[in-house]
Specification:
By secondary structure, the protein is mainly beta. 12% of the residues lie in helices and 33% in strands.
Length: 232
């Protein structure tokens, strides 16, 4: 019972739903690494889909920052970088889901930023240690309002882009995802019992880069929406 807790539990984390007064309660945040060939290349990697599988990292739900808010430059980094992504919001439970059934788990979509302390991520990679300090920190998962899915199909195409102070830095299309949404859901569900409230950040195109105090980050995914945050 709640009155047996030694201190008050942290409040639930939720995300706005477009066109609704209801909100989407966040359970977990999964992020897909290197899911665009051009981004993998700029990170010094190459992906062969025929011999490789997707890989993931996790952000804590306390890292959620709704679009429209200020993003506080995080501590212990000199290289804060943006990564613009399509976010898939899960609305149904599923385990070992077939690709053909993956879309049934989708509640909707959002725009997201996977903010990264790149210098700390690189330090972890150099020492063959986890990426947590580089990826999982307060306000590291920016998200727009969730747009409920309005058809039986997963989102297969659409322009994805990001601007810093009005200058385009990232520009691609969801057709360039190495593993599409259905493939990601099916693969991830082999390792986790996916649950309502899970969010999947599906990967970023090439063009990632640093931001500094005062920068305005704006991003969009066609058919989904837009986001914006100012670095303070």
């Amino acid at each position: 019972m709640s009155d047996n807790l030694v201190f008050p539990a942290q409040p639930a984390v939720s995300v706005a739903i477009q066109g609704s007064e209801q909100r989407f309660p966040v359970h977990r945040i999964f992020c897909v690494g290197r899911n665009y060939h051009a981004h993998a290349a700029e990170m010094g990697d190459s992906i062969d889909k025929t011999t490789m599988e997707p890989f993931y990292f996790i952000k804590d739900r306390s890292s959620i920052l709704p679009s429209g808010n200020d993003l506080t430059y995080p501590p212990q980094t000199a290289d804060l970088q943006y990564e613009m992504e399509l976010v898939v919001a899960i609305g149904q439970s599923g385990f070992e889901v077939a690709e053909a059934d993956a879309e049934k788990l989708i509640y909707g979509y959002a725009c997201g930023l996977d903010m990264t302390r790149r210098d700390l991520q690189q330090k972890g990679k150099d020492k063959r240690r986890p990426w947590d300090l580089g990826k999982n920190f307060e306000q590291a998962a920016v998200i727009s309002a969730i747009v409920p899915k309005n058809s039986s199909d997963s989102l297969k195409q659409g322009e994805i882009s990001l601007q810093v102070n009005g200058e385009t830095k990232q520009h691609s299309d969801l057709t360039q995802l190495i593993w599409n949404i259905d493939e990601i859901i099916a693969h991830l569900s082999k390792f986790y019992h996916l649950q309502p409230g899970d969010l999947i950040y599906t990967g970023t195109p090439d063009g990632v880069g640093p931001v500094v105090l005062g920068d305005l980050i704006e991003g969009s995914v066609a058919g989904v929406g837009e986001l914006s945050v100012k670095v303070v």
